[in-house]
Design brief:
- This is Dipeptide-binding ABC transporter, periplasmic substrate-binding component.
- Keywords: Signal.
- The protein is about 5% helix and about 30% strand.
- The chain is mainly β.
- The chain has a single domain, classed as Galactose-binding domain-like (Jelly Rolls).
- Strands 2, 6, 8, 9, 10, 13, 14, 15 and 17 form a 9-stranded mixed β-sheet that branches.
Length: about 325
């Protein structure tokens, strides 16, 4: 795949602005999504069956001259807008983040390293996981109610562009690979995020309700690299995408959206900076082990390498 650095029409409104999710959101960030919908499914029971599973931060000054001078230096708390180069507001050019993209283009964290809440639990009972264990949701399923058991991870991104999200997962109950296999995902301040299938041309699947906006879809489909765009099949609400695994009765890299219409997960960042990824509970006993966010030109052998270490921010 090639690195994707699109130029968007001026009419696009970033998801973070439409949803009011992030004070640091820029109106030049590119196209994004907003959502609300209901889903009458009683269990997740979908899955598509294909499961293809298919660094350093910039100079930190935000002025683009590459000299590494401290950022704006005003030290104002909460300065940290994406791309201003000083995510912690002390003027030293450092990003305030949890994990950052490494020199090989991969950001990685183990799920058990997250600050858990509510009914999230750490376990190591199922062999074959990476790190010291994995996490699972032991409470009730939330097939139509994203936002429960909210987990947030701040990502330090060193280059603008398109990134892929992948995780190592397994169903934690029974042998039906279409159950206990999904979680909710949302980005609050990224330029855009969606499911993608194919390359030149590609198709995209967006969450609701932005995908129900005919003008938005028309503008996406006007991009030369996009042959079609639509709503992701399955439940979606408030910018949250249902992200599921396929065939993961054993540990597997499998991360996709749109029921029976598998599209891999991609996110676009308009500038270097710190961005928030949110996860929330959907299926109970979905085992989440390792998460990577990597530049789209990084191959799977690198992104999924078993021996890699977490990439915490300094």
């Amino acid at each position: 795949m090639r690195t994707h650095s699109p130029t968007y029409p001026a009419s696009f409104i970033p998801l973070c602005l439409v949803l009011g999710l992030a004070a640091g959101c820029s109106d030049s960030a590119g196209p994004t999504d907003t959502l609300a919908a209901t889903d009458t499914e009683t269990g997740d029971g979908d899955g598509d069956g294909d499961g293809d599973g298919d660094g350093d931060l910039g100079d930190g000054d935000g002025d683009g001259d590459g000299d590494g001078d401290p950022g704006d230096g005003d030290g104002d708390p909460g300065d940290g807008d994406p791309g201003d180069g000083d995510g912690d507001g002390d003027g030293d050019g450092d990003l305030a983040c949890d994990y950052e993209v490494g020199p090989n283009g991969v950001l990685m964290f183990e799920a058990e390293s997250l600050a858990l809440n509510e009914d999230w639990q750490i376990s190591a009972d199922v062999p074959g996981h990476y790190g010291s264990g994995y996490i699972l949701w032991s409470g009730p399923s939330f097939n139509n109610q994203p936002g429960n058991g909210l987990l947030e991870v701040v990502l330090g991104v060193d280059q603008a562009g398109r990134y892929r999200v992948q995780w190592h997962t397994q169903i934690g109950m029974g042998q039906n690979a279409t159950e206990h296999n999904d979680v909710w995902l949302r980005f609050t301040d990224a330029a855009d995020y969606y499911g993608k299938a194919g390359d030149d041309p590609e198709t995209r699947r967006y969450p609701k309700p932005i995908c129900e906006d005919a003008n938005f879809i028309a503008e996406i489909e006007a991009m030369p690299q996009v042959s079609g765009a639509a709503c992701a099949a399955g439940s979606s609400s408030d910018g949250w995408m249902k992200v599921y695994s396929s065939g993961a009765t054993n540990w597997k890299w499998s991360t996709q959206t749109s029921d029976s219409d598998a599209h891999q997960i991609y996110v676009e960042f308009a500038a270097p900076g710190a961005y928030t990824m949110q996860l929330s509970a959907r299926a109970d006993f979905m085992l989440l082990d390792r998460v990577v966010v990597h530049r789209e030109d990084v191959d799977n052998a690198t992104a999924q390498a078993a021996g890699q270490s977490e990439t915490p921010c300094d």
